[in-house]
Every structure is written in structure tokens, then in C-alpha cells.
């Protein structure tokens, strides 16, 4: 293939991979974007301006070498592009699919700011790694030397798995303890297949297992094994449980049947995609088919819920959010996809209660944006006398997540937490006040992005390795 010159953004327009027609994609849980062909990936990569100060890289939590692997892709050097991308990112094919690029790398692309349309970084990243899997370039971890140290990782989500990969490459013995029957955390049971098909996650789990990572599944720490036993059994422990406690919603009628948590709803749907028996889905409790659905919330979890409900055959799907579109925390790309698929957004609305038992409607307050609050965002204010009832027979609460009370659940009073309930850990090494115990991802930083959890996991693994080496040589780790 002829090599592409760079800085082609003036002559070549931005182009995303083909998106399946909304009416068709709303009928299944397959991913909605197609794959770039080799020529198209090279063409879009050639639009990169090769900035002296690459804002795409600096605004990526992993600081991926984006301009370099775009140039390599433009030149047809895909193997080198893959090798470079996986140096900084443990799971580039996953980040290429689910990262909110419009808020991170692509949103800070210099040519986007100049009005030429961003480089489609996420689509190229996905293409590079999908090609690497297809060509057999992704292989199980084979450490050069096996080490004697062992690490317990509590939680098989992105943070825990990123740490497991990094530690195994250094030869450390790694055991992942996970409460579910499949590893992957929210990658497996939280994110719907139309954003991340499950075979993508399962093949990473398999790669790690073939590389020597031991998985202990269906294991609840604090019940099936104590935290103290894990500390006694391993040289270090990494807490990567994520946050699963849903924020609740009060008001009259909030306990009515038909009002469910987003995590329960999404997990049931994903389990059905695996072919599991899911009684709550089969009974209709967690199934939107033939129902009027209202989702409450404005983040990415809410977007996952509304788009799942469309695919399950809901008669109508509405999303209530208390601020306007510009202030919505979820990805604008996801909002657009949802609207194309038939979701109706009711901006500047908030629930004040519910009618019926089981639920038949949401009592809605109309809002307006007032003065900024402490965060700088305009505070929603109630418009008096503008209440109305939104019909619904399935209400999904997608208001975000909070950490579980781990010190109590695990009987470990020495495990320090912040005033928000997250585990207190050093922001560089991720070590807690308990020697040899580390914490990463949402359980330490609060509900956040997969890419941040990956970064945390990699940093914690590096800190552990530095400590192991220091102990071995008798030199204190910095």
C-alpha cells in the first residue's frame, strides 16, 4: 500500500466508520459501528497534524502515543502501530469502543478546534487492535522470569485486569477474586453489547488466563474468604471492586413495584445475551418489552438503559434529566445515537414522586437553570406550578453509584475511607494506609471512566513491582 502523507486534514474530510441504520440496529445488541478498511484507516490517520504539543495525548488519561500510531497506520505499518498502542494501554480495543473520545482525545484535537473535524482516533485505535487479534499478534503473556511474589486482586474489572496483565508480564503470581461468574466487571455485565460485544471481553480474560493469571470466580470477599486471609496468603492485595451501590431516589411511591436499579436492569440484559437463566427478566420484572419506560439520569449508564429498552421492544422510552443538553454528563455521541433510535429526552425535568402500585407514572417537576453552584455548574431550580405526570410502567433509576462500606463488609476497621466512602489511597502509588494493600479505579476515585481505572491499575502494579524489587535488593522504594 502506498504510504500516506500526513497533515491531510485540509483535503480529506473527517469520516467515521459506517453506522448501521437506526431501525435495524435497534432490533439487536450488535455493535452499531462498522470497521474501517485498511485504506480508510490509513486515510483518516493521515489527517493528523502531528502537533508539536499533542493535546489528544495530554488529554488521554493513559497518555497514549496517539500521533505516533496514527502516523504508522497512515504508512501501513500496522504491526508497529499495535506494538506502540499496547505499550501504554492494556486494552486498546476496549477503549477504542467505549471511551468518550468526544470528551477526551478527539474533543481536544487541534484540527477539531480549527474547524476541520477531529481525527477519528477511537475508530482507528479499534481498527489497529482488531487487526492485531485477527493477525495473531496478540498472544498470551510469557514473562521472561517467574517471580516468587504473589498478588491478590479483588475485582476483575478494568482496573484489576490491567494490574493483573502488568504484574504477570513481570513474572508475578496473580490471583483475581471476583464476585461474578465471569470476570470483566462492568465490561461484562454493565456495558451493553451494542457498545462492547462480549466476545471482545471474554477473549481478553482468556488471554490473561493462558498467560498464567488465576481466576477465582463466584467469590465474595468477606463471605467466601476473609480479607485477612487474603493478606496472609499473598504478598500484596489490590482492591479493585468498583462501585456497585446505586444512589437511591426518594419521594412518594418510590418503593412501588416497577421501579428498578440500572445495574440490575443492565446485568439482567447482559446475562440474557450470554444465554443465562435470568428469572427476573423472564418474569418481566427487568424486561422492557411492551412497556412505557422512563429512565431517570443523565450519565452514560442512563444512555445504556434507554438504548437497551429500545432493543427490548419498549413501546416508548423517555429520559428525564434535571439540566439541559449542554450540561449533560453523558457522551453527546451517545445522546445522538439514542435519539436516532427513538429515545425522547425531557430536558430540565426531575422526579418528585411516583403514582400507582405497581408504578403507573412519574410525578415530574419542570426545572430551570439558576446561579452556579460550588462546582461552577448552574444549579437546577424548580418552576412552581409546572408539575405533570409522565406515564410509565417501568422506571429505571440511573443516578450513579456509590462505594460499598468495605471496612464493615470485610471487618477491617483499619481500612481507611474518605468522607465519600471511597478507599483512601496515595494518588501516585495507590497504596492505602495498610501496608501492602492498594486500591484503584472507582472504589478509590469514585465513579469514573474505564480508561482511568486502567491507568490506576497499571500505576499500582508498577508501584508493587518497585516495592518487591526494593525488598529483594534491600533498597527502599521511592
Task: Give your account of this protein's structure.
The chain has helices at 22-25, 38-45, 55-58, 66-74, 78-88, 92-98, 110-113, 121-135, 158-169, 186-189, 198-210, 227-233, 262-273, 279-282, 300-311, 332-340, 406-409, 442-445, 450-473, and strands at 150-154, 173-177, 214-216, 236-239, 245-246, 259-261, 292-296, 316-321, 344-347, 349-355, 361-372, 378-382, 388-391, 394-397, 401-402, 437-439. It has 3 domains: 22-135, Alpha-helical ferredoxin (Fumarate Reductase Iron-sulfur Protein, Chain B, domain 2, Orthogonal Bundle); 150-243 and 403-473, FAD/NAD(P)-binding domain, CATH 3.50.50; 249-401, FAD/NAD(P)-binding domain (3-Layer(bba) Sandwich). Helix 2 crosses helix 4 and helix 9 (158-169) packs parallel to helix 19 (450-473). The termini are far apart. The mean pLDDT is 93. The protein has 19 helices and 16 strands. It is globular. The protein has a 5-stranded parallel β-sheet, sandwiched between helices. It is of the alpha/beta class and 478 residues long. This is Glutamate synthase (NADPH) small subunit. It comes from Aliiruegeria haliotis.
Topology, element by element:
Elements: H1 22-25, H2 38-45, H3 55-58, H4 66-74, H5 78-88, H6 92-98, H7 110-113, H8 121-135, E1 150-154, H9 158-169, E2 173-177, H10 186-189, H11 198-210, E3 214-216, H12 227-233, E4 236-239, E5 245-246, E6 259-261, H13 262-273, H14 279-282, E7 292-296, H15 300-311, E8 316-321, H16 332-340, E9 344-347, E10 349-355, E11 361-372, E12 378-382, E13 388-391, E14 394-397, E15 401-402, H17 406-409, E16 437-439, H18 442-445, H19 450-473
Parallel strand pairs: 1-2, 1-4, 2-3, 4-16, 6-14, 7-8, 7-14, 8-9
Antiparallel strand pairs: 5-15, 10-11, 11-12, 11-13
Helix pairs in contact: 2-4, 2-8, 4-5, 5-8, 6-8, 9-19, 13-15, 15-16
